[in-house]
Amino acid sequence: MDKSTKEEDLLVVPDGWKDPGISKEDNPHGVLAESSFATLFPKYREKYLKECWPLVKKTLSDHNLKAELDLVEGSMTVGTTRKTWDPYVIIKARDLIKLLARSVPYEQAVRVLEDDVFCDIIKIGSLVRNGDRFVKRRQRLIGPNGSTLKAIELLTNCYVLVQGNTVSTLGSYRGIKEVRNIVIDTMKNVHPIYNIKTLMIKRELAKDPQLKDESWERFLPKFKSKNISRRKQPTKKRTKKTYTPFPPPQPESKVDKELETGEYFLKDDEKKARKRAQKRAKEHESCEKKQKERAKAFIPPEEKPTEPKQAKSSTSEVDVDKLKKKIKQAQKGKKRANVKS
Hints:
Layout: H1 7-10, E1 36-40, H2 46-62, E2 65-70, E3 75-80, H3 89-101, H4 106-109, E4 118-123, H5 131-142, H6 147-156, E5 159-163, E6 166-171, H7 173-187, H8 192-206, H9 254-261, H10 268-295, H11 320-340
Antiparallel strand pairs: 1-3, 2-3, 4-6, 5-6
């Protein structure tokens, strides 16, 4: 058995089986001891409860229960009497006053007294810390003009009411369980349309008698969450090194390095002379680098080779006769100018 499957999911109820219930003949002597339950209600429910309380008292009196409404303390109390013969009806009456306190109308809340109707009040206030985020997700559960809530009610055959920090449900045990899963997933940022789509597919598969004893996993959609983190990613990501139980190797000391190079066995004068030689070599290298950098300023830049200009080729032939006429006209003009002067 997989860890994901619970024991209650493996329980199979035979088709057509119904709870036989209990009658007055089964318990003629009544309950052994009287018990009572009380619950508080908000101030805005006082007017409505005052109006419908006679109906509540009449309904509970049919089951031999007593009911009290305390407007000073703001509480409702139900309790058994000596004539009460159903031991479980007091639990149903307790659920009735809880639903009335959570703004469920009397017409719907009174259904919980039936044997095949159950209720559940889901607390959603503590599932989301941010107030604005909580309001958005709660509105997502209701949908535009209550369309999402209506779809959930039709698919689960349950009455669902979202009020404040709670979601009240009323219906069959299996339907209430599905509503709870949808509400919790919605508060965990899973859109209710995914669960609604899954329920619609299950509803169609249930109509096929051949698929009754088969697994429906291959038909159900698998949605992957694409929630991308809005946190700024670092430019340099550090990769974690593989864990080893052994400590890192100890770094070499100055004495170890001198032992490797053989400098440890030299005399003080030889050590000083060696250090001077190393210092001169470094100075010589740095001096050469500086000279090369200075010489870069005196290196002439590379000139681009100039392309020789091509002489215009005179393809047209010169007309000799026209040229002679122009020269004669120019000479005549000079002679006239000399005569006038």
